[in-house]
Amino acid sequence: MNFDKIIGNDNIKxxxxxxxxxxxxxxxxxxxxxNGIGKKLFATEFAKMILCLSNKKACNxxxxxxxxxxxxxxxxxxxxxxxxxxxxxxxxxxxxxxxSEKPIVSNNKVYIINDSDLMTVEAQNCLLKTLEEPPEYAxxxxxxxxxSKLLNTIKSRCTKIVFNKLSNSDLQQYAExxxxxxxxxxxxxxxxxxxxxxxxxxNVEYYSNLDNIINDLSFKDIIDIxxxxxxxxxxxxxxxxxxxxxxxxxxxxLRNTNESxxxxxxxxxxxxxxxxxxxxxxxxxxxNLLLKLWEEFNESNDRG
Length: 304
Known about the structure:
Blueprint: H1 10-21, E1 28-32, H2 39-51, H3 63-69, E2 76-79, H4 89-99, E3 109-113, H5 121-132, E4 138-144, H6 152-155, E5 159-162, H7 168-177, H8 184-190, H9 194-202, H10 204-216, H11 222-227, H12 230-233, H13 239-257, H14 260-277, H15 282-303
Parallel strand pairs: 1-4, 1-5, 2-3, 3-4
Helix pairs in contact: 1-2, 4-5, 8-9, 8-13, 9-10, 10-13, 13-14, 14-15
């Protein structure tokens, strides 16, 4: 992987390349932006450039690049949450032990802490000791989406690089080059996230089902709508993504038709989100959602 193969944020590509080539590295960075827009890929490629022995973008020929490409570089560590929920203090302590050892292959050592906003407060305070007095050869990159979860003392010691979400044209380029089927509603729902686009591809039948439900609201009895909506009843862990997709469909239809049923539909969706957030009975929330949408769509037909 090279920067020219990563989609979007070209200004950051230029900045990072010039930073390495001009030998203007600092010891700690924060890569901030929405999930799924490529921050981790950028951080990994940046690390490869820093460690490259040829002082080019990343030559892919020196011993450092060869070891990096084979996931066998002794001067590079990518730290992730072990349970998907937290990055704990013992992981940071291990990082500190490793970072104190001098580089073996390259002139630097690079540590990426992915989803670093998952660090516990104890882990952050432990990391702070290293950020305050880092070894001269060390570069630490924090990759995160929620800056507010980091201590101010951590943020004040890092150079912040903010990533823009990818445009729909960026997503379309990625989809076409990777044979991913898509439509405008899907691209809009992704909000610039490639990982969301891939999720659409992996669950395309879900969204096809949602399209059918939306199209049937004006033509079928509410009992039939309930019966064909298993996808909503069985997707408790993913319901907010599905509701966001329905909202996007309604908003795009509103722009095309200016019919009030679509803006009222969005309001019904948002009210359902609030009920779910307040821990209301899940199945009853979906029952009520579908009934309210059905009533709105059929009353609008009667008004027409």
